[in-house]
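User: I'll paste a sequence; please echo it back and then give the predicted structure.

Assistant: Echoing your sequence first, then the prediction.
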Amino acid sequence: MKSFLLPGIAVTLAILGATQAFGGTVDFVTNFNAPNNPNANSGFAYGSGSTPGAFTAFNALAADANCLGALSYCEGFLSASFPNSPGVAWNATGSNIVSGTVNLPINVVHFDPQGQSIDIEYTAAAAGIFTVAATFTGEDSSQHQIFTSVYANGVQQGSTNSISSFGATQTYSFSTTLAIGQKLDFIVTGAGPSWDSGGLSGTITTPGVTGTPEPATMAMLGGGLGVIALYRRRRTGN
């Protein structure tokens, strides 16, 4: 059977047949949970643990005094002040901070495992495909070895890698399907208690929300069907 659809009508039908998807991107840095960060995404949690099952959330959120410079924010354990215990920090000063051998740029979430493990954990708020682009960077000018690993729903993605020099990087890039409540874990472990600082940057692209076409599209379809009928009548002479 021949199709007599006009090109414009074909486009209208294609629009009707397609679902609408609206995805989002979560950035490790801009979404760091801090009291002066209105863009913070509650999907992130920060804690210790060398595996996802060992995750223990940090119980302190401090500003200025316990972090590396004014307008920086960090999370760690109450038993000791960051950076003298495992913790993560976000530099909100607008410029690079240097404290001894430690460098804290504005474009990373800074971590200091202190010979232990730090886990930056993201929890899926929707089901679907998540795309990860994450980079760990050595941020100590006297860098000692650190080990990096990434997990999706408890399954390791790629290998455990190491960083042993200032500015060296390890990158993880993959897509994975998660259900609501399942997690992505970004773990770094320090080989010793000193000079094992680093940074994490990158994004997590979250799945879109699908829906039916808007009423305006339905109206376009109605008009298109009328044009189809008229076109067929003209061709058949009716």
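The CA atoms of residues 149 and 210 lie 32 Å apart. Helices lie at 7-17, 215-236.
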